[in-house]
């Protein structure tokens, strides 16, 4: 492809995989041994994710609360199947990646889209609270937002956590793009500056920040 052409076909990064990753993969393949991993994921990998979130996002998460899965896309479906039931309602950003809607609807739950600001992808908190009803089970955020490429700041994330606490809702954050930014680092909902709310779930993976989309490596972080 011409170097001046930006591919817009899918959310694949346009940079090559880092040399250190290629070397590590080659070293691993030398033994020719590709066994199944434990169902909960390799302990060394879960510990590495925990260390990554601690160093990069000021987030403390027990490795035992990290589940490696087959892509962040699958993580959305796993979370929906775990916390939702038919008839539940979920508030999701509008616009957002289509997998948010599909994963929620796959378990018979209802999608309630809520427009986000084109300035910073934030919700109108008053409108958000008005949409919360007896069947509402969760609020989803995509931070940074796909496709807007905008991120919610510290004050807004803190307000969302407090609102979720007030109504005893799950707060699900897709943070797959969190590492890719221009300027100041972005905040995770797991950041230690926020209240230690148990019903937060983070979905992420290695497809964007490390350019490993084809390996389908994702993970789920919980705080319970």
Quick tags:
single chain; 224 residues; globular; 7 strands; alpha/beta; 6 helices; 7-stranded mixed sheet; 30% helix
In short:
Strand 4, helix 6 and strand 5 form a beta-alpha-beta unit. This protein has 224 residues and is of the alpha/beta class.
Protein architecture, described:
This protein has 224 residues and is of the alpha/beta class. The chain is 30% helix and 17% strand. The chain has a seven-stranded mixed beta sheet with strand order 1-7-6-5-4-2-3, sandwiched between helices. Strand 2, helix 4 and strand 3 form a beta-alpha-beta unit. Helix 3 runs parallel beside helix 4. The longest helix has 15 residues. The mean pLDDT is 93.
**Bulk shape:** globular
Oligomer: single chain
- Helix amount: 25-40%
Radius of gyration, in Å, reads: 18 Å
The share of residues in extended strands comes to 15-25%
Would you tell me the structural class of the helices and strands? alpha/beta
Extract low-pLDDT stretches. none
CA-CA gap between termini: 46 Å
**Largest sheet data:** 7 strands, mixed
Helices and strands, in order, run as HHEHEHEHEHEEE
Major beta sheet, strand line-up: 1-7-6-5-4-2-3
Mean pLDDT: 93
- So how many helices? 6
Say how many strands there are. 7
Structural topology:
Elements: H1 19-29, H2 43-57, E1 66-69, H3 71-83, E2 89-94, H4 98-105, E3 110-115, H5 125-131, E4 136-142, H6 154-167, E5 170-174, E6 200-205, E7 218-222
Parallel strand pairs: 2-3, 2-4, 4-5, 5-6
Antiparallel strand pairs: 1-7, 6-7
Helix pairs in contact: 3-4
């Amino acid at each position: 492809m011409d170097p001046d052409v930006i591919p817009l076909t899918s959310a694949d990064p346009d940079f090559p995989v880092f040399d250190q990753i290629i070397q590590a993969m080659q070293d691993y393949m030398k033994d020719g041994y590709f066994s199944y991993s434990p169902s909960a994921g390799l302990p060394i990998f879960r510990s590495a994710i925990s260390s990554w979130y601690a160093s990069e996002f000021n987030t403390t998460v027990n490795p035992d609360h990290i589940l490696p899965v087959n892509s962040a896309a699958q993580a959305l479906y796993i979370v929906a199947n775990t916390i939702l039931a038919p008839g539940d309602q979920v508030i999701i950003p509008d616009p957002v990646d289509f997998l948010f809607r599909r994963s929620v609807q796959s378990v018979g739950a209802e999608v309630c889209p809520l427009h986000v600001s084109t300035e910073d992808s934030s919700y109108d908190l008053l409108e958000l609270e008005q949409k919360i009803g007896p069947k509402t089970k969760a609020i989803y955020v995509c931070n940074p937002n796909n496709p807007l490429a905008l991120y919610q700041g510290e004050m807004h994330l803190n307000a969302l956590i407090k609102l979720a606490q007030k109504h005893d809702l799950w707060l699900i954050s897709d943070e797959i793009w969190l590492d890719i930014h221009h300027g100041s680092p972005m905040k995770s909902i797991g950041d230690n500056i926020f209240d230690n709310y148990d019903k937060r779930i983070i979905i992420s993976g290695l497809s964007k920040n490390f350019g490993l989309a084809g390996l389908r490596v994702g993970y789920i972080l919980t705080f319970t």
